[in-house]
C-alpha cells in the first residue's frame, strides 16, 4: 500500500540511531565531561536554567528509592553532579536531564569527537520520502538541541536540512497520547496524517490512541518486542519497508 500519511514522525534512539551509540558513546561522554562542564559553566545563564530544571525535577523525585538530592551550600556542585549521575544510571528521560545532556554534547560534536550515528538505510529512504512530498519530523526524549547536534554532526555530515522540525518531551511524555495530539496541533495537521515510527511498544500504542498510524522498528541491539502485544503493528527491520508497495 502506498504511504497515505503526509508526515513521517521519527523516534531517534532504536529507530534511526543505534541504542549502542546512545548508551556506549553519548552517555559515557556526559559522565566523563560532567564535572568539568559544571565547573566551567556554573555561572552561565544556560547552566543556571538547566540547574533550575534539575532542582524542580529533584523535588518530584524525592520519594524514589536511592534518590540523590541536590543541596545548597558547600557541597552544592558535587550534589548536582551526583544527582545527574544517579538519574543517568536509571536512564531517566525527563526534560531536565535531557536538556543538560544536550548542552554537554555540544563540545563533543563541535570538536569532532562525536559523530551522530544513523543506520545506513535512513538517509536514502528519507531522501526518497521527501521527493514524494512527505515531511520528516523527529520526536525523541533527547532534547531538540541534542537532536540538532546529532544531525548537524552526523557520520554522513550535516543532514539537518532533511528534517522540518524536531520535538522533545516538552510536547509531553512519549507514552502519552496527548503528546502526539500536541505535535499534530503544533504542525497544523490531523493525527490521521502522521505516521510515527519507534522501537518502543508503549510509544506506538500512545500514538495510535491519538489517531496516528504507527509502526515498530527492530534494529540490532534493540530490546525484543513481545510478539503478542506488538502484533497489531507493522514491524520493520529497516525504513526501506516504507517504500514497498
Ligand atoms: C537524540 S540524541 C539523545 C538520545 C537520548 O538521550 C534519548 O533519550 C533518546 O531517546 P528516544 O526517545 O530517541 O528513544
Ligand atoms: Mg527510541
TrEMBL record:
Gene3D superfamilies on file: 1.10.720.60, HAD superfamily/HAD-like
One of the GO biological process terms: L-methionine salvage from methylthioadenosine
EC number(s) reported in the record: 3.1.3.77
Molecular functions (GO terms): acireductone synthase activity; magnesium ion binding
Chain residues that bind substrate: 140-141, 174
Cofactor: Mg(2+)
Domain of life per record: Eukaryota
Residues binding Mg(2+): 11, 13, 199
Protein keywords: Amino-acid biosynthesis, Cytoplasm, Hydrolase, Magnesium, Metal-binding, Methionine biosynthesis, Nucleus
InterPro entries referenced in this protein's UniProt entry, alphabetically: Enolase-ppase_E1 (IPR023943), ENOPH1_eukaryotes (IPR027511), HAD-like_sf (IPR036412), HAD_sf (IPR023214)
Major location (coarse): cytoplasm
Transferase found in the keyword field: no
CC per GO annotation: cytoplasm; nucleus
Binding note for cofactor: Binds 1 Mg(2+) ion per subunit.
Pathway annotation: Amino-acid biosynthesis; L-methionine biosynthesis via salvage pathway; L-methionine from S-methyl-5-thio-alpha-D-ribose 1-phosphate: step 4/6; Amino-acid biosynthesis; L-methionine biosynthesis via salvage pathway; L-methionine from S-methyl-5-thio-alpha-D-ribose 1-phosphate: step 3/6
Subcellular location, record wording: Cytoplasm; Nucleus
Catalytically driven reaction(s): 5-methylsulfanyl-2,3-dioxopentyl phosphate + H2O = 1,2-dihydroxy-5-(methylsulfanyl)pent-1-en-3-one + phosphate
Function of the molecule: Bifunctional enzyme that catalyzes the enolization of 2,3-diketo-5-methylthiopentyl-1-phosphate (DK-MTP-1-P) into the intermediate 2-hydroxy-3-keto-5-methylthiopentenyl-1-phosphate (HK-MTPenyl-1-P), which is then dephosphorylated to form the acireductone 1,2-dihydroxy-3-keto-5-methylthiopentene (DHK-MTPene).
Annotated family: Belongs to the HAD-like hydrolase superfamily. MasA/MtnC family.
Assembly and interaction partners: Monomer.
Protein's recorded name: Enolase-phosphatase E1
Record organism: Sipha flava
Lineage: Eukaryota, Metazoa, Ecdysozoa, Arthropoda, Hexapoda
Gene that encodes it: LOC112694259
